Amino acid sequence: MILKAYAKINLSLDIVGKRDDGYHLLEMIMQTVELHDEVILTERTSGISLSCDKAYVPVDERNIAYKAAKLIMEASGLTSGIHIHINKNIPVAAGLAGGSTDAAAVLKGMNAMFSLGLSHEELKALGLKLGADVPYCLEGGTALCEGVGERITKLKSFGGHVVVLVKPPFGVSTKDAYGAFNLEKIKRHVETEKLMDSLAKDDLNGVHYYSRNLLENVVIQSYPVIKSIKQRVVKTGARVTLMSGSGPTVYGIYENKETAVRALDELRKNGNEVILTETV
Ligand SMILES: C[C@](O)(CO)[C@H](O)COP(=O)(O)OP(=O)(O)OC[C@H]1O[C@@H](n2ccc(N)nc2=O)[C@H](O)[C@@H]1O
Ligand SMILES: Nc1ncnc2c1ncn2[C@@H]1O[C@H](COP(=O)(O)OP(=O)(O)OP(=O)(O)O)[C@@H](O)[C@H]1O
Fold it and tell me: Which CATH class is domain 2-154?
């Protein structure tokens, strides 16, 4: 079974509280982009094995796709085994939910492949055990995500917009990004309702005005280059520019493909990985 595991960008990320276990309560708008990993599932007699076309991705129990297979096997009592192969196209530790989306694909794929009969809600509950972004990855599209990310409200699709992703040559740990954040210092939160209105009207001026990510400033403190990448993305004509998730990927949303294509060479300087994609 071959599955497409799509990346996401954050059109916003607001932090509204903190749980006793250290997890942050969020209000964020997530958007799927066309960029995806390919996850190939093959039945084997027993056990779990994993391979990946990129050497820097772990292929043992540390891989979240491996953990997803283990979890769904335990939850369903499945005795057959599985081989997972990942063709990795999504940059790693990038704020694009690369690992979470592979895990979501394994949960969804194995449920279908072995007719395990788990409901969508049951899959989401299993996904949440693996990571806060997994329930959204099972859903996809344009969505408001609350709680730690698991309370999902589907929104009118903001699909069809041209996006350029700019990933500088380093990763950011999600844990460190949240760890550096101080809620008491925040004076102005994201105007999520207004952003949702702008998205529903496909109003790029409004999206530009209201899209915000509260992790952006804390991550820029450690990696100031993210700020200059944002400025460069704006200069190439992007209508909306923001850091995705816990970073370091910065994205630009462009009015049309021609402007985006012209931006690619300029943004590729300084060792950045640059990917042309679109919202879906
Ligand atoms: C930054 C985002 O990608 C935005 O969508 C997510 O909030 C992160 O989701 P994720 O990578 O699936 O996160 P997890 O793997 O569950 O958690 C990694 C670490 O991030 C922090 N974390 C994560 C989610 C959340 N709502 N609050 C947090 O404080 C915790 O310290 C946790 O140990
Ligand atoms: N299937 C996987 N794909 C990519 N990275 C994985 C995978 N499984 C485990 N990892 C490890 O997880 C870490 C985070 O990578 P990932 O790409 O999931 O981060 P991210 O894009 O920032 O995710 P998020 O946006 O959900 O925080 C990396 O250090 C990587 O080695």
Answer: alpha beta
